[in-house]
Amino acid sequence: MILFLDVVSPLPEFSLIEDNKIIFSKKILTNNFDKMSDYLIPAYIDLDKKFSLDKRLELLVTNIGPGSYTALRVGIAFLSGLSLAKNINLIGLSCVDLFRYEIKKEQLSSSVIYISSSNNQKFICLYSVEKNKHIIHKIENDDNLFYLDKLYINNIFTNID
């Protein structure tokens, strides 16, 4: 069984995966005002009681960004501790990893992944054919979401290293 911890979404959650299917998901928070650090361990303990995770976990997976710095660090630290204590492998996935997995090579230049994270942070992940790399861009102004046109995208590509 795989335990996936989503700490990028506005409301983080655990998902249990078995035979490539999500068999159970549990939100860690019910609103944006609670602190994940206060609810993460109790949520895990509930899952462990319900599914006997100590005996069944084979892999831990979490997303590593982009997202809220604090949420990412809390989630990664928790799973790192669990990984060491239980001797279970831990894998981190970024939006670039998802980009590579989900989007066909011929569609890379015309695809964008939009990420809404906790603390009302928003990001887009794009692929630059010219630079042959993925770019993660934080959206500072929501108005820009309505203008994901060629000019806006070119501006992002122009201002990267």
UniProtKB/TrEMBL annotation:
Chain segments annotated as coiled-coil in the UniProt record: none
Chain ranges of the Gcp-like domain: 56-130
Pfam families registered for this protein in UniProt: TsaD
Transmembrane annotation, as ranges: none
InterPro entries reported for this sequence: ATPase_NBD, Gcp-like_dom
UniProt protein name: Gcp-like domain-containing protein
Provenance organism: marine metagenome
